[in-house]
Structure formats: C-alpha cells, structure tokens
Specification:
mainly alpha; two-stranded antiparallel sheet; 23 helices; 74% helix; globular
Length: 502
Amino acid sequence: MENVMNMIAKVNSAINSVVWGIPMLILIIGTGIYLTVGMNFFQVTHIGHWMNETFFAIFKKKHVTAHTDKNETSISQFQALSTALAATIGVGNIAGVAGAIITGGAGAVFWMWLSALFGMMTNYSENVLGIYYRRKNSKDEWSGGAMYYLQDGLKGKKVIGILAKPLAILFALFCVFASFGIGNMTQVHEIASSLQDTFSIPPIATGIIMAVIAALVILGGIKAIGSVTEKIVPFMACAYILGTIIVLVMNITSVPTVFSAIFTNAFGLRPIAGATVGMMIKQAMTMGFKRGVFSNEAGLGSSVMVHSASNVKEPIVQGMWGIFEVFFDTIVVCTLTAFTILSSGLIDLETGAVLTASTGASLVSEALSEGLGTLAGGFVAIAICLFAFSTVLGWSFYGTKSCEYLFGTKATIVYKVIFVACIIFGATMSFDLAWAIADTLNALMAIPNLIGVLALSGTVFAITKNYLARKVTKTDPQAKPMLSFDPSIQEMQEQALPKEEN
C-alpha cells in the first residue's frame, strides 16, 4: 500500500507542477481581469447595490431567507449561499492560509486578495450563466452548472462549438473526482488530525463517525443539505470571526507592520539578491493564488451548481451572491486568519522565517492561544470540524449533480455511497498527498470552466447590461428581462418575477 501511495504522489506531483504553472495562473487571473474590465469593475462600482441585494437583504427581504414549500424542489437564496459558503469556507481558510504563509511568506496574502478581487467577477459570471442555462431534471429539480452552460452555450458558437459536449463531459468528470479531493479527503484529513492532536481521538474513529453523520444528511438531497448548512454556516463563521478579532484587537499595534510585510514580501522589496527575490515573488504568487482558489473556488465552476438550485428568477441576483461569497470567504475570513498568524510573533516578518514547529491548523491554534489561552486548541479543533464537515456536505452536492449529468439521476445513489466511504479513507491518508491531489483536481476543473466563461462572456455582459438598465440606472425600466436561454423557462420565470421583491 505504501508503494502504491508513493507512486500516486509522484505522478500527481508531476501533473501538479504542469497544471499549476504560469499559464494556469495567467488563465485564472486573466479571466477575472477581463470580466472585471468588461463589466466596468462591477464589484467595486456597484458595491452598495450588491451588498444591499445580498447581505443586507437577509435582514430586509423575507423571500431571500424564506423556506420553499415542502413540495418544492428548489431552495431559498440564503440556503443556496449557505451551502455554497459551506463548501468554500473550509480548511482552506485555516490550514490553507497557514500553509500559504509558511511556503510563500506574508506576500502570499496579497496575492490571495488579488485573486479574490478578480475572482468575484469570475464567480459572478459563473452564477449568471448557471441560472441562465439551468434546466429541470426528471425529479423536477433545478440542474445547473458549468457542464450545462458549456453544452448549451457553446454549441452554437463557431469553431469552439464542436468542443461544447466534450468540454462539458470533461468538466463533470473532473468535478466528480475533485469532490473526493478538495471536498472530501482533504477536509476529513484536517478534521481527523485536529481531533487527534487536541482530544487524542483515533483518525479511524473520526472517519467512521463522520461517514455515518454525513450519510444521514447527504442521502436527504439538496433540501436536507441546505437545511443543515443554513444553521451551521452562520454559527461557525461568527464564532471563528469573533475569536480572530479578539486576537487582532490584542495585537492591534502590530497591524501596520503586518500590512508592510505583506506588500514588501509580495513585490520583493527587501534588499535581497535578484534571483532570490524572483523566487520569493513566484512562491508568494503561486501559493497565494493556489490557496485563494482552493478557498473561494472562483474559476472552478463548482458553487454555481448549488446556486442554480435557488428559487431566484434573475440570473444577476444570484451572480451578486457569488460576489458576496468570494468577498466573505477570502477578504473577511482568510484575512482574519492571516492577520492572526502574522501578528502573533510566530512568523519573523523581516525574514519570513517560521519560529515554531507548528504547521497548518496547529499554527493557527498556537496563534489564537495568545488571546484564547488554553481554549485555543479546542476552539480551532471545533472550528475545523464545522468548517470542514460543512464543506463535505456542499461538495457532495457538486459531485452528485456532475454524476447526474454524466450518468443520469439513478446513478447518483452509487456516487453518494462511494463518497461516504471515501470519508473513512480520507481520515487516514497523508497531509501532503491530500493537498497535492486537491490542487491538481482544482486546476483540471478550472480549465474547461474558464474556457466556457470566456467564450460566453458576451452573454454575461448582455444580461448584466439588461439588468442594470431595468433595476439600477433605470435607463430602460420596461426592457424584457433576460432570465433563461430556454423560451419555455423564460416565460415561466417572467410570470413569477413580479411576485418577487428583486
């Protein structure tokens, strides 16, 4: 078994070094920049509008949080966001940020911010396309995602149209496999390691218990997953944010120094030899983008699958939830983790040297101990459990929808059984292999998805322009809304639209 695992690690390392090279980073950040410029920096110029339609709408608009009827198969906008955040807010926000800082230095944080800024519009575009190209399956559930907008959106395009179906199939295949990496084994490994270090619970026991609990929720479908995540996500996010803010306030005087270290390290401004500077910048960029994408998943085309299950009618509204998702995940949660670590004294901000043997979640735990004392270990362990377990639930849905696309709805039960079984395996696998597999599968998912997003960017621009003219600038309030590529769905959504408070 050990030889097999070593062989898998070597093959994966070779693939990982190729797919996560400079071309991949250019594709990810370049797509975000292109979409941002094409929509006139929507995430910045319309920040008041999208915040009002997302975060503030939770408290002001009942239809955003109201549960759908028992007989309906869709979920509320807030449940869709909670499930998407459940899948994105995971170990990447804790262990991933720590790993990025250890390997790429404080500068990795800047590149995480940059990936989030442009990733907001990538995630926005994915959600807009997801709603616009979604359809109903045999169970009368909404099915959407990159595979659908690749298949239906690209098939009418010149030249690239011939690749529509192959790209859709590739994406779905990569997503199924990725769900076992980023959405399962990596998360479960962190839970098992954290509980073993803190409470001496054997990894195999953690794996079995988690598999049983996950099975009870996953087999209930999206309604059950949405119901659980809308309770877990707000609680876990608020608790973790409160803990990191306590430490941040205690170390408030070091915040200017932390900011300085982040920008200095990101651009290699220290007086170091040229080759060394280049290597440091490359490491900071690579780790920042890797962990940024791992954390907020912008560009992967993953969270769009659950956003497409929402009862929303306007594609742009769910697109704005995508902006908020990336903002909250990376700009808020990841930044608080990074500042907790960098202000703790465990990292030499001048040299980037790590002054402790702790890594991953244990580094965050040690940093938090300054403010939370002996409670830090248990606090981080519980946070890891909630963050990671909710990620497992979210990704189980992504894998289910991809399996449904490839093999039909009946095949999804087989996928769910295998997914639950892999939870036990993930609890006992090595840390490095778990992360390496996740990074590789992330990149493989991103390639077909970003090709589709770029090719269909004109559609996103048109839908956005239509929405702004009707709802924001009011230059054409009577314009016909662009709700679906399918005329029958367009008509159905138009009839329901006046009933909403969008």
